[in-house]
Specification:
alpha+beta; 5-stranded mixed beta barrel; metal-binding; about 15% strand; DI3L2 exonuclease; flat; 4 helices
């Protein structure tokens, strides 16, 4: 019930109605039977053996093929829930076409995760000296959030959120992964910290330890 299979019909079928379609199918089946029998006779006379690649009917009309010879297809009709955070870690670089109008307004963001599309980001979001010294930021990790992707554009549109630091270092890489997956890694609030024991160092009391199962 989740997949809608769209039947494919020629315009001639729609014009001549169901009767014409049945006649066409009948003729095609007869041709298929004749072709198969003639090929079988020819193979018996010449002694040519059929290989695995020759198995299966040779039909131009896919409606005559058995199910095992068909590749089922479908199309996305609606997005129920957006699971991705729309945030990605990657690098920024200048556009290749320096004479284009887009070069004066945008830079290219290339995500580390190749499943995420490349993104146009405004130059206003980039560091002030990025245009004059782009090589200084070639190994600098940034967080970009996708905000739009127009149908007629090959690349998405987004905004740079922050600079993480040099690629390859543990802190920037870890922060980038947590941000991509939408994990809140901010500091605990005072209300949360007040729930913790205040008398430090804290140890489990003997009575509590006796009630617990020791899995150390």
């Amino acid at each position: 019930p989740d997949v809608i299979i769209e039947a494919q019909f020629d315009d001639n079928d729609a014009e001549h109605g169901q009767d014409h379609l049945e006649d066409t199918l009948t003729d095609d089946i007869k041709k298929l039977s004749l072709d198969t029998s003639e090929k079988g006779k020819a193979a018996g006379v010449t002694g040519v053996h059929r290989t695995k690649q020759d198995d299966g009917p040779k039909v131009n009309d896919p409606r005559l093929l058995p199910d095992e010879f068909l590749q089922r297809t479908a199309k996305v009709v609606y997005i129920l829930e957006k699971k991705h955070s729309r945030a990605a870690t990657g690098f920024i670089k200048l556009l290749a076409d320096r004479n284009s109008e887009l070069f004066k307004r945008c830079a290219m963001f290339s995500p580390v995760d190749h499943r995420v599309p490349r993104v146009y980001v405004p130059l206003a979001d980039c560091p002030p000296d990025f245009v004059t010294k782009p090589e200084a930021y070639s190994q600098m990790l940034f967080i970009c959030r996708i905000v739009d992707w127009k149908e007629e554009c090959n690349f998405a549109s987004g905004q740079l959120c922050k600079s993480l630091g040099q690629a390859g270092e543990i802190e920037p890489e870890s922060e980038g992964i947590l941000t991509e997956y939408g994990v809140d890694f901010s500091d605990f609030s005072p209300e949360v910290l007040e729930c913790l024991p205040q008398n430090l160092p804290w140890v489990i009391s003997p009575g509590e330890l006796a009630r617990r199962r020791d899995l150390r």
